[in-house]
Design goal:
CATH class of the largest domain in chain B: Alpha Beta
Largest sheet of chain B: 6 strands, parallel
Number of domains of chain B: 2
Radius of gyration of chain B: 26 Å
Oligomer: heterodimer
Helix content of chain B: 25-40%
CATH topology of the largest domain in chain B: Rossmann fold
CATH superfamily of the largest domain in chain A: Crotonobetainyl-coa:carnitine coa-transferase, domain 1
Shape of chain B: elongated
CATH topology of the largest domain in chain A: Rossmann fold
CATH superfamily of the largest domain in chain B: Crotonobetainyl-coa:carnitine coa-transferase, domain 1
Helix content of chain A: 25-40%
Structural class of chain B: alpha/beta
Largest sheet of chain A: 6 strands, parallel
Number of domains of chain A: 2
Radius of gyration of chain A: 26 Å
Largest interface: A-B, 154 and 156 residues
Strand order of the largest sheet of chain B: 3-2-1-4-5-6
Distance between the termini of chain B: 35 Å
Strand content of chain A: 5-15%
Order of helices and strands of chain A: EHEHEHEHHEHHHEHHEEHHHHEHHEEEHH
Strand order of the largest sheet of chain A: 3-2-1-4-5-6
Number of strands of chain B: 14
Chain lengths: 410, 440
């Protein structure tokens, strides 16, 4: 059997809420053995995020296994154990898992793990070579270390809520939890670099991932522009300062749109051909990028007179065929049907014991020529508690039962 | 001087600071050749932040992206490009024309010394030059090639043009952005390909890990469209997969909640305040009662009449118990309160009371944001040629082994030609003659 990139890497994770799971998916999709530790007494808030798959029986509670939000984000194979840290026995079992693991990942605000003695210093006593990755909104030092950090707020803090908007109206968010999906890649890199470094040096370490700091690494040019030129970004609708036509144009149908970007004068010539060389397009003021940018309001109106009579799929095909950037403004249905995403088998279809068969389980946005991503439905709460205690920790079944009676596995 | 302290009270750092830089860098043993254009500069930058030796290869005369703004002091000079500064810092820079036979020969020699090649050309371009993954792996079977594009190396969109707005549209990030009665919106800050590029960086590390086990390199196909789909998947695909609902755009609001009369209400995320905007994550459920109650107390201190919310049972009630009139009244109350205060005041209120409220920072705000200051986040980087220093974002993570983050400014055109080419075994004369013939 072909070896997988992270074969032999053992991960224990307590990644509460949004970001941690995106960080670890990259490792768990590619061969790491990952154990998810959680408790039903204080469930991961994502397990309670709408929308939920409906239940079959009238009056049956939704429970913790039907959130589509949870299952869309948790697509990697994991083992699951429930541990209620109110019991010292649970903390003791967790420490045994730490001794077994190469990496511990956690996503609570600062303080939660620390109070249990499970900060890096505590873990290191159990396993000196452990790599501990802690992610939270604001980082694990400083006056805001213990603040809960939801992606919707961090997106604002990291300037991402200033980058989308019309010049004449308040800005809009680029996505609800934008930093939740922008910041994880840096922490994944850190874990992978730390594993590589440990392989060579034998040294483990502690990684402090502040989601705002990772997020800000995407906007460095804006930070420099402010210092060098005293300029703040002014949101400018769909316009581009060096290309036109550049925008989102109404098409035939209900709320159907196409994005078009004519980036060069050569592309403008091709664009004119496709729209049938109308007389207006021959106006010399449109011959150069500078001229088109200057007259872009008028140009946008004229372009829309052409797109309005066509479905966006057709505009996309006609323009891309001649090397001009165009793409339909995809909604949920368009994404589901997108021929390119489907070519990559990006919507894996899987059965879920509570949710039924669904087609949205994604691999990562990368394809490797010599390694396949393993995509799974999310692990159920405590799905492998017995297996982990027995097979990984070597506990006898009667001891497991005794602890279960006490509520250690709640 | 680049070590950020995690535990100022422990002696941990005292010993580390004594080690040399090279030893401190986690990925210092890897050499990466970076052929990307401005779509994907950030990929090599991120890997160089962890210590990899990244050599940015430009066309003789400079990368065309150097000519796009913004520029330092708005002077359109290829050596003053701020995007170049941002995403090529830490790299070395050489010039090489890989479209010439001699250039290809030199590139192949470099590949023999390298672990990774990253590139963002249109699919097929490098194969056309005889420099595709298959060609390079014959020279160096351990080489990893990471290709970053809008749509990927295969499939029906393989040859599509992938400007920012087009990829963003097909990735699902535009449709849900904007106001109901206006066209959907893209981003005014061009950065969309950074998502694919950062996935390319992670893919590179996965391939390097794999190489430890197999001894062989491989080709990594990093795709921005898919990275965007991940961003919006939970929000837009869940409702569609379960109920064939298509989420659309609602201005400053993103979260839909259901009210008492079963009507859908869009819970605003962004709010205008005295000097800008703030984001509020308003959770209306019993678990958030304490926060909501104490927020109401602050609102009353402003002499704002909270009407029926004096008697609202926060401990038991949720959105589902609220009439549309009540929901609108609550929005009015909050709107009035925020307009009384500045971003700074609201940040302090949020920090003191753990409210899920944050300022919509701009660059000025973020540079003085107290939490970042306390963590020593910003790094002053010298630009001796400009006679100045500029503050850059610090490392995306703090680590106890190996520094992560910016170390030095981006390279000038051909700045490291002599160093790199001479290490490759070329004489100074040879380098000079390559320069004269336009190969480098």
């Amino acid at each position: 059997m072909a070896r997988k990139p992270f074969e032999g890497v053992k991960i224990v994770q307590l990644c509460w809420a949004g970001v941690g799971i995106y960080i670890l998916n990259y490792l768990s999709h590619y061969g790491a053995t990952t154990i998810r530790v959680e408790t039903a007494t204080r469930p991961d808030p994502i397990r309670l995020f709408a929308p939920y798959a409906p239940t079959n029986k009238e009056g049956e509670p939704i429970g913790l296994e039907r959130s589509a939000f949870f299952s869309i984000t948790h697509t990697a194979p994991e083992y699951g154990i429930c541990l209620n840290f109110k019991h010292p026995e649970a903390v003791a079992i967790f420490k045994k898992l730490v001794a077994w693991a190469d990496v511990v990942g956690e996503g609570f605000p600062t303080g939660v793990m620390d109070k249990l003695g499970l900060d890096y210093e505590g873990l290191k006593q159990v396993n000196p070579e452990i790599i501990m990755m802690r992610t939270c909104g604001y980082g694990h030092t400083g006056p805001m270390a213990d603040q809960p950090g939801f992606g919707s707020i961090l997106t604002a803090v990291t300037m991402m809520d200033t980058i989308v908007g019309w010049p004449d109206s308040p800005p809009v968010p680029p996505s609800t939890y934008y930093t939740d999906q922008l910041s994880p890649m840096y922490a994944s890199l850190a874990i992978m670099a730390a594993l590589d470094y440990r392989r060579r040096t034998g040294r483990g370490q502690y990684i402090d991932h502040a989601q705002i700091e990772a997020g800000l690494n995407y906007i460095t040019p804006l930070i420099l522009d402010y210092q060098a030129n005293n300029r703040e970004l002014a949101a400018n609708g769909n316009k581009c300062d060096h290309a036109a036509p550049h925008g989102v144009y109404r098409c035939q149908g209900d709320d159907r749109w196409v994005a078009i970007a004519v980036m060069t004068d050569e592309e403008w010539q091709s664009f004119k051909q496709v729209i049938g060389n109308p007389d207006w397009a021959k106006d010399p003021k449109y011959a150069t990028s500078a001229g088109r940018v200057e007259n872009s309001d008028e140009l946008d109106r004229l372009v829309e007179e052409w797109t309005i009579n066509l479905p966006p799929e057709q505009v996309q095909k006609m323009l891309q065929a001649v090397g001009v950037g165009a793409g339909l403004v995809a909604n949920a249905k368009d994404l589901d049907e997108d021929p390119q995403l489907n070519h990559y088998n990006f919507y894996r279809e899987l059965d879920h014991p509570y949710m039924g068969r669904l087609r949205y389980y994604h691999p990562d946005p990368i394809k490797l020529s010599k390694a396949e991503a393993d995509v799974n439905r999310p692990v159920l709460l405590g799905e492998h508690t017995d297996y982990i205690c027995r097979e990984i920790l070597g506990m006898p079944q009667d001891a497991i039962e005794r602890l279960r009676q006490k509520g250690v596995f709640d | 001087m680049f070590i950020r302290k995690l535990h100022p009270h422990t002696a941990l750092y005292a010993t580390h600071a004594l080690r040399s830089f090279q030893e401190e860098l986690m990925l210092g043993c890897y050499r990466i050749l970076d052929l990307t254009d401005d779509k994907a500069f950030i990929c090599g930058r991120a890997l160089s932040d962890f210590g990899a030796e990244v050599i940015k290869i430009e066309k003789p005369g400079g990368d065309p992206a150097r000519l796009k703004g913004p520029f330092y002091k708005d002077i359109p000079d290829p050596e003053k490009n701020l995007t170049w500064f941002a995403f090529n810092a830490n790299k070395k820079g050489i010039t090489l024309d890989i479209e010439t036979a001699r250039g290809q020969e030199i590139f192949k020699k470099l590949v023999e010394t390298a672990d990774v090649v990253i590139e963002s050309f249109a699919p097929g371009y490098l194969e056309g030059l005889g420099l595709g993954y298959e060609d390079l792996s014959k020279i160096n079977p351990r080489i990893i090639m990471t290709s970053i594009t809008g749509f990927g190396q295969e499939g029906p969109y393989r040859n599509y043009k992938d400007p920012d707005i087009v990829v963003r549209a097909l990735g699902g990030l535009i449709y849900t952005n904007g106001y109901e009665d206006r066209p959907p919106l893209t981003t005014s800050y061009i950065h969309t390909h950074c998502l694919g590029a950062m996935n390319g960086a992670v893919g590179t590390m996965i391939a390097l890990s794999h190489r430890v086990l197999t001894g062989k390199g491989q080709h990594v196909d990093a795709i921005t469209q898919q990275a965007l789909d991940i961003v919006c998947s939970a929000e837009v695909e869940g409702p569609y997969a379960l109920f064939e609902e298509i989420p659309t755009r609602h201005g400053r609001a993103r979260a839909a909640v259901t009210l008492k009369d079963k009507s859908v209400f869009y819970n605003p995320l962004l709010w205008e305040c005295k000097d800008g905007y703030v984001a509020l994550n308003l959770l209306l459920n019993p678990a958030s009662a304490k926060n909501n109650l104490s927020m109401m107390e602050f609102i009353k201190k402003d002499s704002i009449d909270i009407g029926s919310f004096e008697k609202w049972e926060w401990q038991t009630k949720s959105w589902e118990d609220m009439t549309p009139e009540e929901a609108n009244k609550l929005m009015e109350i909050l709107g009035e309160f925020f307009m009384n205060h500045t971003k700074d005041e609201l940040l302090k209120l949020a920090t003191d009371n753990r409210f899920q409220l944050g300022p919509c920072n701009n660059a000025e705000d973020v540079l003085k944001y107290p939490q970042l200051e306390a963590r020593g986040f910003w790094k002053e980087i010298e630009h001796p040629e400009l006679g100045t220093t500029l503050k850059y974002p610090g490392g995306a993570v703090m680590t106890t082994q190996g520094y992560c983050g910016i170390r030095h400014r981006a390279p000038h055109i051909g700045e490291h030609n002599d160093e790199i080419y001479q290490k490759l075994g070329m004489s100074a004369d040879e380098v000079l003659s390559l320069k004269e013939s336009g190969v480098i």
